[in-house]
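Researcher: I'd like a candidate sequence for this fold, 395 residues long. If you have to choose between options at a position, lean toward the conservative one.
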């Protein structure tokens, strides 16, 4: 099972000091957080995509490529890649490049996002969000698996003889998770393609996500990818950890009370009772996280949100020490001991997907060549221009 953290990249005022980080400070801090995640033995680091204040992560592939160069083992992913407002051609290019630069240590999570103004900023209509998400991923799926694509849809110009470059590393597309908190059509799409389904599991009671995850599992089996127990499920979570429960509650309370999302609403105690948030000792975090399996069945990826609401970098790094040093080792053992014999143990990785595709045989890495026309076959589109250039030189 994979354990890690995800960030929404918010730049929020620290309610205990009244200070707010600059963009440069917050970006640098998040790099340090990612490096710390690897240092303490976590498996995954994820960052969201936002195009509005108070967030900074408008270019997650750029950020993750930098982190890839600064780490050796960490799987790098997104907690949202906007499949609605990004052109699927650009997603195909950007994430294939990240796949190469990270030597396969990446995947991505697709989502529609929850910021309505983003749609018109990128020339789209939020009322078309769901059909956009479905059509755009259908195209993205083909761009990574077909060397030459002819395609026509409703929301972008047609493609004729198009090759997305670079081609996926080893000829294996990046693994995709579909994130959704409310839409069965997205769970259906994840199941149809045999992709992963991720429920952020932060703000709402377990019953809400149970229905979507159960539906995804049933449809995953329906499409012949495996049994319901073999479906690929990821969950979010949220924790604030201290050596003892009293210190955790005292330290986190001002951040909870003033957090942009849930501040000035329910009490911290009521919120932790109703949602997956846990504020307490390492043992309390362990015990609550283990209940996720009781609600949702065996799953393959657990990510925690731990750096939001204005928490200072030093506090986040202390949290990661406790998460990696005391919480995750116990969770690994307990989840493994409790896992059903027929359940999938691990989420797909680049190495496992390569092994599944090629076995012990050699991998395939296409070498697109513009001199052969549509990058792979056919007459060169540059022949006429080359002849004209030669004539000009000769003349």
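Model: Candidate sequence:
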């Amino acid at each position: 099972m994979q354990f890690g953290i995800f960030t929404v990249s918010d730049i929020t005022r620290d309610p205990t000091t009244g200070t707010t980080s600059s963009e440069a400070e917050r970006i640098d801090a998040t790099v340090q957080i990612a490096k710390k995640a690897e240092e303490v033995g976590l498996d995954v680091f994820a960052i969201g995509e936002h195009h509005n204040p108070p967030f900074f992560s408008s270019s997650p592939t750029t950020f993750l490529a930098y982190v890839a160069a600064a780490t050796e083992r960490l799987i790098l992913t997104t907690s949202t890649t906007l499949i609605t407002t990004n052109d699927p051609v650009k997603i195909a290019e950007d994430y294939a490049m990240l796949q190469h630069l990270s030597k396969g240590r990446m995947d991505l999570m697709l989502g529609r996002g929850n910021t309505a103004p983003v749609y018109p900023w990128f020339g789209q209509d939020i009322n078309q969000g769901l059909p956009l998400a479905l059509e755009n991923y259908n195209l993205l799926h083909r761009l990574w698996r077909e060397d030459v694509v002819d395609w026509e849809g409703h929301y972008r110009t047609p493609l004729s003889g198009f090759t997305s470059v670079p081609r996926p590393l080893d000829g294996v597309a990046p693994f995709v998770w579909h994130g959704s908190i409310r839409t069965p059509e997205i769970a259906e799409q994840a199941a149809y393609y045999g992709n992963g389904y991720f429920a952020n599991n932060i703000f709402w009671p377990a019953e809400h996500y149970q229905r979507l995850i159960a539906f995804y599992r049933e449809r995953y089996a329906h499409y012949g990818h495996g049994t319901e127990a073999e479906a690929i499920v990821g969950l979010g979570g949220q924790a604030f950890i201290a050596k003892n429960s009293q210190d955790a509650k005292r330290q986190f309370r001002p951040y909870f009370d003033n957090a942009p999302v849930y501040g000035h609403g329910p009490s911290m105690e009521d919120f932790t009772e109703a949602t997956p948030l846990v504020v307490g000792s390492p043992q309390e975090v362990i015990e609550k996280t283990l209940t996720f399996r009781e609600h949702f069945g065996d799953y393959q990826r657990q990510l925690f949100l731990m750096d939001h609401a204005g928490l200072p970098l030093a506090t986040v790094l202390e949290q990661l020490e406790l998460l990696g040093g005391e919480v995750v080792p116990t969770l690994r053992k307990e989840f493994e001991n409790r896992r059903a014999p027929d359940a999938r143990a691990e989420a797909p990785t680049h190495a496992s997907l390569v092994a599944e595709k090629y076995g012990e045989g050699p991998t395939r890495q296409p070498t697109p060549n513009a001199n052969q026309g549509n990058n792979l076959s056919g007459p060169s589109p540059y022949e006429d221009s080359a002849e004209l250039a030669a004539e000009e030189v000769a003349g």
